[in-house]
Design brief:
Nuclear Transport Factor 2, Chain: A, alpha+beta, six-stranded mixed β-sheet
Length: about 190
């Protein structure tokens, strides 16, 4: 009878230690995953913040070539009249930036047939000494099949007061390669 109790006791201790070990490993994995996700979010914010800074610098210095260089080759090819779009956006944006919010950045990742793609949909509220704007852009950050498809894909700048009628976050109404121009603007 004592041997049965001893075997039962050893079994209980072994199972308890196993559960504790599994719990510890799971906890470490969860912490590692959380840390990795925070790193990705932080990196996405750095990419978005760097891009908005460059966009505003180009707008304020009327650097059309600099703005055009931000778009990757396929986006330039798909864009309808990129040079006209850049002229439009340069004329539309007025003033010098006084402030910008931290921005809203949404990451979209996809894997298809082993090909990974990632893009950031970024929205900032930029206040200048003349007006307040929503600056929205789509930044392609990863394309494992074609590294040339990385960079700025779309740029939309609207007055914040036109948010309801002109902004859908790069949805069906506004998504395009190059510079978004409202339908009311002659192209």
């Amino acid at each position: 009878m004592n041997i049965k109790k001893l075997i039962l006791f050893i079994t209980i201790i072994t199972l308890s230690l196993g559960l504790i070990a599994c719990s510890s490993v799971k906890s470490k994995l969860m912490k590692a995953r959380e840390s990795a996700l925070n790193g990705e979010i932080s990196n996405d914010n750095k990419i978005g913040n760097a891009r908005i800074k460059k966009i505003i610098e180009c707008l304020e210095s009327n650097d059309k070539k600099g703005l055009k260089k931000m778009f990757f080759p396929k986006a330039l090819k798909e864009a309808k009249d990129i040079d006209g779009g850049i002229d439009y956006i340069m004329e539309f944006y007025k003033g010098k930036m006084k402030s910008s919010d931290e921005g809203t950045i949404v990451t979209e990742d996809s894997v298809e047939d082993g090909e990974k793609k990632s893009e950031l949909d970024c929205r900032y509220i930029v206040t200048t000494d003349k007006d307040t704007y929503i600056v929205f852009f789509i930044e392609k950050t990863v394309d494992t099949k074609n590294a040339d498809n990385v960079g700025l894909y779309m740029l939309q700048i609207i007055k914040e007061s036109d948010r309801e009628k002109e902004f859908d976050g790069g949805g069906k109404k506004t998504r395009c390669a190059g510079i978004y121009r409202p339908a009311t603007v002659k192209k």
